[in-house]
């Protein structure tokens, strides 16, 4: 899966489960699935891409 597709799916999950931590949408609550994936209770929205990169393989 491409990183862009993985990021899109995580964003869809965040929106569907209303996991925004604050009204400015700069931070999200991880919920059980994202907490298992990222290992944190909340994360800055801008950091999601970097966190996903740790879980994806790159073609060499």
Automatic annotation (TrEMBL):
Residues 1-58 form the DM2 domain. Pfam families: SWIB. InterPro entries: SWIB_MDM2_dom_sf (IPR036885), SWIB_MDM2_domain (IPR003121). Gene3D superfamilies: SWIB/MDM2 domain (1.10.245.10). PROSITE patterns: SWIB_MDM2 (PS51925). This is DM2 domain-containing protein.
């Amino acid at each position: 899966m491409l990183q862009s597709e993985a990021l899109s799916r995580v964003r869809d999950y965040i929106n569907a489960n209303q996991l925004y931590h604050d009204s400015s949408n700069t931070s999200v609550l991880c919920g059980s699935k994202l907490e298992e994936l990222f290992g944190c209770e909340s994360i800055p929205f801008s950091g999601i891409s970097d966190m996903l990169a740790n879980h994806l393989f790159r073609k060499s």
